[in-house]
Amino acid sequence: MTMKTKYSSASLLALLLCCTAWQEPLRAQSTKPVPAPRPPGQNPNGMHIYLWAGLKTHQPGQHDYPQFLADWSKLLTEHGAIVDGALHPPTADDLAHTDVVVIYKGDAGYPIASQQEVFDRYIGRGGGLVNIHDALCGPDPASLAVLLGGAKKHGEVNYTLGAPVHYQVADAANPIMKDFSDITIFDEAFFNMTWAKDPAVHVLASAKIADTPSAAGHVGEVVPQIWTYEHSGGSGGSPARAFVWMQGHLYANLSNYQIQRTLLRGIAWAAKRPVDELVDYKPVASPAHGVTPAAQPGH
Q1: Is residue 218 a part of any domain in this protein?
Q2: Average pLDDT over the chain, rounded to whole?
Q3: How far apart are CA 79 and CA 260, in angstroms?
Q4: Residue 51 phi, psi dihedral angles, 5° rounding
Q5: Strand 150-153 versus strand 137-138 pairing type
Q6: Strands ordered across the beta sheet of 150-153
Q7: Fewer CB atoms near the end CB (10 Å): N or C, the chain?
Q8: Contacts of 72 (CB under 8 A, 6+ apart)
Q9: What is the largest CA-CA distance in the chain?
Q10: What is the domain count for the chain?
């Protein structure tokens, strides 16, 4: 004899609600964002660096901003940093966990001015800046100099174009300049700079302006080429740091041994990390991935 069970409408509704309630935790669990796995070998304790590059300009081998983004994202990761970057300015979200922004693009003063509030908040909490070559340029050099210590006006003839740049080290005792000597490279130097005055920049190396047609009237002037700048970061903010290398007109000079190591130290200094953290980083060997995620900077 077959027995048939009859359910009331109320019983069926209760059963349906029970099943739905049981499924809700699973649904919530399945839709919860899962963080991306950390790339094998990435140093979890590394400084967070944002590389802000730009579109390629000038002749081959000059101002190669996209190549910088590709090369230095790899280089800095190999030196223990956690690197992000783009060919556009960093957003507020990008800067939320960034220790230092490295800028290699033309006329950075324009986008900085258009996103002043974003950069003010970043600098106000003590975020670092590293500026390479004509990222020093913009429409308002006085405002840009507040962030970098020095800046130049866009549209003026204030550059040598390609010329010998002979560095005269001004502070050989500074740890950033540990591997740097009085060398000469072929690149470009700027003059007619607008300088911050209170505080002033700390000059690490200078050069005399070379005799080129565009430098008429400024030949022989001694102009800072590498400097650090430390300032209040804004009203009530944490002290902020900037490191500037004026050259980089020729992209190949970023591979110069002395310059590259000086840049690595300048980046670490601007990030408020030990100056030799990037230079001395040594990943620890691991059978699984070649390096261990617990690798620490070597000191």
Answers
A1: yes
A2: 87
A3: 12
A4: -95, 115
A5: parallel
A6: 137-138, 150-153, 194-195
A7: N
A8: 51, 83, 102, 254
A9: 114
A10: 1
Sign (positive or negative) of CA dihedral 231, 232, 233, 234: negative
Whether 10 is in a domain gets the answer no
Six token digits for residue 257 = 């041994």
The Cα–Cα gap between 150 and 43 comes to: 33
Q: pLDDT tens-digit profile of 43-85?
A: 888 999 999 999 899 989 999 999 999 999 999 999 999 999 9
Contact 202, 242 (CB under 8 A): no
Q: Is the pLDDT of residue 127 over 80?
A: yes
In three-state form (DSSP H/G/I as H, E/B as E, the rest C), the secondary structure along 57-76 is: CCCCCECCHHHHHHHHHHHH
- Write down how long the chain is: 299
Indicate which CATH number applies to the domain containing 90: 3.40.50.880
Q: Is residue 280 part of a domain?
A: no
B/e letters for 33-49, b = 16+ CB within 10 Å, e = fewer, are eeeeeeeebbbeebbbb
